[in-house]
Specification:
Layout (H helix, E strand, L loop, with lengths): L20 E3 L5 E5 L5 E5 H6 L27 E7 L3 E6 L7 E3 H7 L3
């Protein structure tokens, strides 16, 4: 019986190195400095609108459940925590805190 190894980590498009710095200079934005030298940022409102949690996205269909009209324009992030070595958990000023944002998602959403 032979076993085959899976693809190398670099072949996995969702495998993204964590940022070297996470910047919270403004409560309305989160910035990132990535290992390849790119810098990017995203607003707290944009992150909230992209929240992948089961309260915001139907787990079976992928349909959005969050009404964008309910997310205030001036939304801020009140707390940011690491989730292992693969993601961030963000608490927003509207009290929402159940989304986990992977490095790949943050990189894609912030345009890096």
């Amino acid at each position: 019986m032979t076993s085959q190894a899976g693809p190398p980590e670099s072949a996995d498009p969702e495998r993204v190195q964590p940022p070297v710095r996470i910047l919270r200079r403004e409560p309305e934005r989160i910035g990132f400095e990535w290992p390849d030298g790119r810098e990017s940022s995203i607003s707290a409102r944009e992150l909230r609108l992209s929240c992948p949690c089961a309260r915001c996205v139907d787990e079976f269909t992928g349909a959005a459940l969050l009404d964008p009209e309910t997310v205030p324009e001036g939304l801020t992030q009140s707390n940011v925590e690491l989730v292992g070595n693969y993601a961030l958990s963000i608490t927003f000023s509207d009290g929402h805190r159940t989304g986990i944002f992977t490095w790949a998602a943050l990189r894609r959403l912030s345009g890096a």
